[in-house]
Design a protein that fits this description.
The complex is a heterotrimer of chains A (257), B (323) and C (293). Chain B is mostly helical and 323 residues long. In chain B, 73% of the residues lie in helices and 1% in strands. The chains are: A alpha/beta (257), B mainly alpha (323), C mainly alpha (293). The structure holds adenosine-5'-triphosphate and magnesium ion.
């Protein structure tokens, strides 16, 4: 059963077609890798699926429902959470508050509950804070981090915080955009654990990543993009040895030299 | 904790004694004007400081509030209480128009739209003579009264202090709650907030609505306090002054508006040394400019720090201030 | 009828060109800083006051007064606006909001400063751009000499700027900086210097507009506190903010719309036209009419 399906998904920026006619299916409960050389359209795919960019044409079907032109916040609440390739935390919010932002919809309280500080609000506060702390624990952030600003964390922790914020939406699909970028060895190993852990909770993951070691270790299925088009898909080992894939990466590298 | 209570008590006492000690009724009137401006500045702290939605057109809401209340009272013969209510409601309603551009625009472009809004409202006030009496203004606006006694400046002072206390309580509860967190998330990174499930349109409407309602209330107060209103009080320069007050006090501090408004109002008075009559406005605006440029957090955090130093830190929670 | 239309077009265009010149200043500032200076219009006010001081009070020759006035305003732009305010706020990574508020307060301070230095009473401007009593008549159409002068100055400015941007090394470097600061600095362009230059150009050009506006508004604080500044912003936004010459077209549009609205609707709603145009463009066409230069 597929949790996400795109049909002929196309996104162009003026002359550049960043995603071209993509048919991508993501199996429920799987970890799917989305790889490809720089500029091949991976981030754009995540942006279109999460509603950040409107699709030029084509459809995004999530859980059987067409979500193509839905608002970002509705897509998020429907169960698609994401992280960002360039970290986007809230400048002046603490670690705990950052996660609580994404718990907003679960408060089940109104502005009047806030003004009157009703018992409903206090219960929700306690409940959501507890949940946020659980999530922080999952990504390896402890008590000592709760009250510091998100942006003052070391780089790897900031990425983890983004994952915790995404998980706070209780998503069924998690889109990770290069989560390992800039991580040191230790953080990298822990990230691998986090991903396994999340997967075990039944959350489907789409992983965009350049670090093949991580892709190899965690993905069940792999989709390769090149110039916005789907080059091939299949198990990682097949993709890795596919001459077209090698050429796409090497061609890119040669051009860079 | 006990020491802090003493501190609050001293501040409360100073406030209660103010109109009694300052026997000059005109000074109390000016203080009342500054408290009215504090209401607007508090709204701006919520909207600009917490929700990140700039407005340089708040004189418009101030004006709409003032005219709505005086005209419902004068032309329709409604009681003043209903005038206040109408002022607030109409301002909240108008804020919807202003927040629609904010769905699409931010920063400079939003500020330009709010300036345009302010000017358009001003031009309407000046030119809709049959309703507003144009540039001449509206005279004979009745003062508030209770049990047959008309309010004098001292009464207004206490009423304003209580009102500000309640409004402070209101925005404190909101900004310290999950709603305030959504405001701040939206302010810091709108895209990330939306991808975290925050409906930013709703929160923009809410932020604009709260601060417009505050400004409308302030306008109604002003109309009934002074008894006379004219378009002059609602020019663009006033809008800048309100923002200046919020920033001087501290745009991201709950007390920013309450601290900023009296300071900006009374600063020129402090420079009125003999022989300085020509310079005092320039000196005052220079000081405000320096505060804005060199102390981006404003004066409220400083005052809070000073208070904590004298009367001890708050034992739990963070960044709080007097209840 | 046709005469009236022509006459209105001409006076509208003259006014519009002046808004446009202010808009050029806005664009030049935006291109290198990505910011809008809310004290922008005070450069026009300062320009007019300086010129008045040199020419009328000190009786210096006109050309010298003109150059001195513009130069002084440019110096203010480089050393006060950039040297103090811009640097301070950027130095602590302050956001747009801080810059908006700071420049707004700067504007208020400058208004008060002018009142202290020159008094609050408007000075009538000498008729150096021709007397309004003695206009040019071309076949029944009345054209103010002032309008002709505006056209001359704007034309010279456009030609000069065009030459500067397209032909001189400094101009090209400035354009490269506006495109991308990092690339420019890799190319060995002194980004700091270029920013300073753009501040000087932005404030200096606005000062020219101020001197040309003085015959209409007098030498008064009205020049720096009124809504002329907003009209300059509006011209720039309509023109696309990244194209200085687009601002002239934006200004023309506003000037004409204003003049004809006075003619056909009512003078009391004259300024509303600008704001309606501004909001319309911001919402419906935020990229403006013209592409990046
Ligand atoms: N907002 C945008 N406007 C214009 N072009 C864009 C935009 N976003 C992406 N592109 C273009 O679309 C193409 C795909 O970019 P994308 O960021 O999706 O690549 P990517 O696969 O994520 O690359 P990387 O591995 O470097 O992150 C690129 O050519 C890029 O320049
Ligand atoms: Mg990418």
């Amino acid at each position: 059963m597929n949790i996400l399906e795109t049909k002929g998904l196309t996104k162009s920026f003026g002359g550049v077609t960043a995603n071209s006619n993509l048919d991508i299916c993501i199996k429920k409960g799987s970890v799917t890798g989305l790889i490809g050389p720089n500029g091949s359209g991976k981030t754009t795919f995540i942006n279109v699926v999460s509603g950040v960019y409107p699709a030029t044409s084509g459809k995004v079907i999530f859980d059987g429902k067409d979500i193509t032109s839905l608002d970002k916040y509705k897509i998020a609440r429907a169960g698609i959470a994401r992280t960002f390739q360039t970290i986007r935390l809230f400048e002046r919010l603490s670690v705990l508050e950052t996660v609580l932002v994404a718990r907003h919809a679960s408060y089940g309280a109104s502005i009047w509950d806030a003004v009157l500080s009703t018992s409903r609000l206090r219960a929700a506060n306690a409940r959501e804070e507890a949940r946020a702390k659980e999530l922080l624990e999952i990504v390896g952030l402890g008590k000592q981090h709760y009250d510091v600003l998100g942006n003052s964390l070391p780089y790897g922790y900031r990425r983890s915080l983004e994952i915790a914020r995404a998980l706070a939406l209780e998503p069924s699909l998690l889109l990770l955009d290069e989560p390992a970028a800039g991580m040191n060895r230790e953080e990298f190993n822990f990230l691998q654990e986090i991903i396994q852990n999340v997967k075990q909770q039944g959350i489907t993951i789409l992983l965009v990543e350049h670090t093949m070691e991580l892709v190899e270790a965690v993905v069940d299925h792999c989709v390769v993009l090149n110039y916005g088009q789907k080059l091939t898909e299949g198990p990682f080992c097949d993709c890795e040895s596919d001459p077209r894939v090698i050429e796409a990466y090497l061609g890119k590298e040669e051009a860079e030299c | 904790m006990q020491r802090r209570k003493i501190g609050f008590l001293i501040i409360a006492l100073l406030i209660v004694l103010y109109p009694l000690v300052v026997s000059d009724s005109y000074k109390v009137y000016i203080m009342n004007r500054s408290l009215i401006h504090a209401i607007i500045a508090m709204g701006l702290v919520t909207q600009v400081g917490f929700a990140g939605q700039i407005s340089l057109g708040h004189a418009a809401f101030y004006g709409i509030g003032a005219y709505t209340s005086s005209l419902t009272v004068l032309k329709l013969g409604f009681p003043i209480g209903l005038g206040f209510l109408a002022a607030i409601l109409l301002c909240v309603l108008c804020s919807v128009f202003l927040s629609v551009p904010s769905f699409k625009l931010s920063g400079f472009f939003l500020s330009l739209t709010t300036i345009a809004f302010g000017h358009i409202v001003w031009v309407i006030i000046v030119n809709w003579q049959s309703l507003t009496n144009g540039a001449l203004g509206v005279f004979g606006i009745p003062s508030l009264s209770l049990f047959g006694t008309r309010f004098n400046n001292t009464h207004y002072f206490y009423l304003l202090v209580v009102t500000i206390g309640l409004l402070y309580f209101f925005i404190r509860r909101i900004t310290n709650s999950f709603i305030g967190r959504a405001f701040m998330a939206m302010r810091d990174d709108e895209l990330a907030a939306e991808c975290s499930g925050i409906n930013t349109r709703y929160f923009k409407l809410l932020a604009f609505g709260i601060s417009a309602g505050f400004a409308g209330l302030a306008g109604a107060f002003y109309a009934h306090l002074s008894g006379f209103i004219s378009p002059e009080s609602f020019r663009f320069a006033e809008s800048t002054k309100f923002v200046g007050m919020a920033v001087t006090g501290g745009l991201r501090h709950l007390l920013g508006g309450i601290v900023g408004a009296p300071i900006v109002t009374f600063l020129p008075e402090m420079f009125r040394f003999p022989g300085w009559e020509t310079y005092y406005m320039m000196a005052a605006t220079f000081v405000i400019l320096m505060i804005v440029v060199f102390m981006p957090d404003g004066l409220a955090p400083l005052l809070e720090k000073g208070f904590n130093k004298i009367f001890g830190e708050r034992s739990t929670g963070k960044g709080g201030s007097s209840e | 009828m046709l005469q009236m239309v022509l006459q209105n077009s001409i006076s509208g265009m003259a006014m519009g060109l002046l808004y446009g010149v202010i808009g050029i200043g806005v664009c030049l500032f935006w291109q290198t800083t990505g910011l809008i200076n809310f004290a922008h219009i005070s450069s026009a006010m300062l320009g007019a006051y300086f010129f008045y001081t040199f020419y009328v009070m000190w009786k210096l020759p006109m050309v010298i007064s003109f150059i001195l006035a513009i130069g002084l305003v440019a110096l203010y732009g480089v050393f006060i606006l950039r040297g103090v305010i811009y640097k301070q706020i950027m130095g602590r990574k302050g956001g747009r909001l801080e810059f908006i508020v700071a420049t707004m307060m700067l504007n208020i301070f400058l208004l008060n400063l002018v009142v202290v230095l020159w008094g609050g009473v408007p000075y009538p401007f000498p008729n150096i751009f021709g007397s309004p009593m003695n206009p040019l008549r071309i076949g029944g159409i009345v054209v103010q000499y002032h309008s002709v002068w505006v056209l001359v100055f704007t034309g010279a400015l456009v030609i000069g700027l065009n030459f500067f941007f397209k032909r001189t090394l400094t101009g090209k470097a400035l354009r490269a900086t506006a495109q991308n600061k990092d690339t420019a600095s890799l190319m060995g362009i002194g980004v700091e210097k270029m920013t300073a230059l753009s501040f000087a150009l932005s404030t200096g050009i606005t000062a020219i507009a101020g001197i040309l506006l003085a015959p209409i508004y007098f030498v008064s604080v009205e020049l720096g506190g009124g809504i002329i500044g907003i009209k300059g912003f509006a011209s720039a936004v309509i023109g696309g903010l990244t194209n200085p010459f687009g601002a002239l077209v934006g200004g023309l549009l506003i000037g004409l719309a204003e003049n004809f609205s006075v003619f056909y609707i009512s003078s009391s709603y004259r300024d509303v036209i600008t704001f309606v145009l501004l909001v319309f463009f911001l919402i419906a066409r935020p990229q403006g009419l013209f592409k990046k230069m």
